[in-house]
Amino acid sequence: MLIPVILSGGAGTRLWPVSRQAHPKPFITLADGLSLLQGTLQRAGRLPGVEQVVTVTNRDHYFKTQAEFAAIDDAKGLRFEFLLEPVGRNTAPAAAVAALYVAQTHGPDALMLVLPADHLVERHDAFAIAVSSAKRLAEKGYLVTFGIRPNYPETGFGYIEVGAALPGAHGQRAERAADVTTHKVASFVEKPNETTARTYLESGRHLWNSGMFCFQAGVFLDALMKLAPRVYEGAVTCWEASARNTSPIELADAFAELPNVSVDYAVMEKAEGVTVVGCDIGWSDVGSWKALSSFVPADKAGNRLVGQVVSIDSRNCFIQSENRVVGAVGVKDLVIVDTPDALLVGHKDQIQDVKQVVEQLKAAAHESYRDHRTVHRPWGTYTVLAEDERFKTKRIVVKPGGSLSLQLHHHRSEHWVVIAGTATVVNGAEELLLQRGESTFIPVETPHRLTNRGTVDLEIIEVQTGDYLGEDDIQRLEDQYGRA
Q: Under 8 Å CB-to-CB from 148, ≥6 apart: which residues?
């Protein structure tokens, strides 16, 4: 049995303003119409023998993740389990609790395929062959990682130096045709400077470290217990304190006490019997605007343009606009990314420093580090249309069967106007049925709820007024999504 374990987290810094803390990189949609998370699920679900997928994600991202998975036709026959983190603690704690779940549910010999949710793999057939080779090694008790054959001197990745070959591990003709190789790992090396990276490329003995792994759940837990006892003991404490008879499984708050370390640092760099599957699977970690822009075809001037862009005498720029027209005149080597509430302009050579912008926004408690103008909720979405200190106007879309919590606000009143669909509204002691064009006013401190019992989206305009309009002014009394 092979259990893909998808690690889906991240703070949304390197691809800001498209990626945000509440809408991180796994949810970014590429040109094929799939998000990175959906692409990960799709290729994992197509692997032979896969019947269940385990996803470790943040509690705040659960409903969005669930909706993303439901939209993938290839995943209809799969079983899902979600392990929900109270806070992000890097890949080793996430993989540790997943291994405890897999060992408890399927036995310690069950194979885990650990996959980051935010990577791109374009050659699915080659990926399946590489996984097949990794499975055979993992069945023999090896800890297996995947190395990507480099084609340029990248300084942003760690590298794996290959050791002795493992003959016979990839004997199938398909594996030879896909140029899959298996070796013992000689060493893991940190991100190099450009000169060292060129040396690695020329040597033919170094692979990019992909951050993907395959091993038996019990073998990984044994290695954790020996090499990273704080991670192991903390994961066991957390697991035993978690309510494990529910789905999704909300991990206990003790998870926050686990060391913030990666699988590589906690285990792979220290363990014996580590092997690497070398492969060329069309892999990218999509870790920067430079990487993401490479998937957009360039015009004759070297510009890569997405959306409504007019370029005049500009060269070697990446420009993306979601809604507005962007005019670029006489500029070169820039990254320009426009979203409804934030604009990024940076030089290509310094675009990695965008995370410093996010840090400053977070320090200033500016909402744009966390949320987009459109925010996803379990019941649908809301979009902030206009606001100042005294009022805020939203467009709220409630999907069929969706319902906001029964709630009240201490500092604001709300006026709801239905613009599409039919709204079932609780307003204090009244229950109202509102059609398009009808409205209701909800005073401060009044319990209220909005529900869509129809078969099409319900859309309303909400106007808030009061002395404080923050999203934290909400007291949930009842909630069908367990948030009360």
A: 207, 208, 210, 278, 279, 280, 281, 283
